[in-house]
Amino acid sequence: MTKYKVVMTNRLMEPALQNILANCEVKLWEKAEPIPREQLIEWLKDAHGLIASGNVRVDEELLQHAPELKVIAQAAVGYDNIDIAACTKRGIPFGNTPGVLVETTAELTFGLLLCAARRLHEAWNFVKGGHWVPGNNISFGMDLTGKTLGVVGMGQIGVAVARRARAFGMNIIYHNRNRRSDEPQIGAVYRSFTELLTEADCIIVLTPLAAETRGLFGRKEFALMKKTAYFVNASRGAVVDTPALLEALETGKIAYAALDVTDPEPLPGNHPLLKLPNILIAPHIGSATVETRTAMAVLTADNLLAGLAGKPLPACVNRSVNY
Ligand SMILES: NC(=O)C1=CN([C@@H]2O[C@H](COP(=O)(O)OP(=O)(O)OC[C@H]3O[C@@H](n4cnc5c(N)ncnc54)[C@H](O)[C@@H]3O)[C@@H](O)[C@H]2O)C=CC1
Ligand SMILES: O=C(O)C(=O)CO
């Protein structure tokens, strides 16, 4: 039996990788740098399946070079790198990995807030640097108990973050594209975007990146926040206007930022954000645990193999072509 041809733009965790290798003829990009566009185009010319990744742009032009493509899958819930309309136009289902990474990403996101509020990385550098001597200490942090957390983007991960924040005695307000009907269950009160910005002591961003959220946090928004505000972004870097964030942190418009995502990614070593004392940056590790990356890989392989077999994908974004 001839095997389906599959292009993988990165490795997936075992055993999902073995499952794909056993069932398909695979071209696998294993280098650290993103696959060059020309290489991807060359590989896609007779491919039936594509495992994409966040650093690969899938658009109309790329799809024109992939006439045999039946399915695209990606080990992530976010799909801002994928032109969904272009996939749908060609009848190509796109599969992502919602759900399986919710608790893990919520742990990291709330962990960033906790580390920021208690200045943990400064504390560690202080001790490591030999500055811990009597009479010397780092700047004091901020209690979370009793403070107001504003969640922008109250979806699956936002709700899981809110659950953690409630356990810490925080009051929760949120802003979402659509107001939720389960506010009593999630223990959060709806606010307009402007109300949330002015009221919250801590703000956590968990919206997808789309045309309407690109640059959602700019100069005007940082100016509305409390000067004592802690700002956490775990969504996508481009939801925040980076020069505006830099200015807000430099000029004391807000107190502190903790980021799991940046624009660009990775940040160049000489980026001015890296020189600030009031920032903590993680290298996009929201879902990066062995258990969760394995579950994401398994769902990605299941999406791919279902699409190749002409069956519905277990998790499909463009459901109108998922049959
Ligand atoms: N840092 C990391 O490693 C990870 C980051 N993410 C990011 O988090 C995002 C959210 O993931 P989930 O919670 O699973 O998705 P979700 O789809 O369950 O939640 C997103 C929420 O944002 C809301 N939203 C959309 N546009 C909005 C706007 N303009 N203003 C306010 N709210 C808006 C939606 O209504 C929805 O409730 C992903 O799209 C991804 O970009 C997800 C997983 C890991
Ligand atoms: O799933 C996503 O969207 C991520 O950012 C990585 O898990």
From TrEMBL:
Highest taxon in the source lineage: Bacteria
Coiled coil location: none
One annotated GO molecular function: NAD binding
Cell division as UniProt keyword: no
InterPro entries linked: D-isomer_2-hydroxyacid_DH, D-isomer_2_OHA_DH_cat_dom, D-isomer_DH_CS, D-isomer_DH_CS1, D-isomer_DH_NAD-bd, NAD(P)-bd_dom_sf
UniProt-listed Pfam families: 2-Hacid_dh, 2-Hacid_dh_C
Classification via CDD domains: GDH
Name used for this protein in its record: Glyoxylate/hydroxypyruvate reductase B
Organism name: Anaerospora hongkongensis
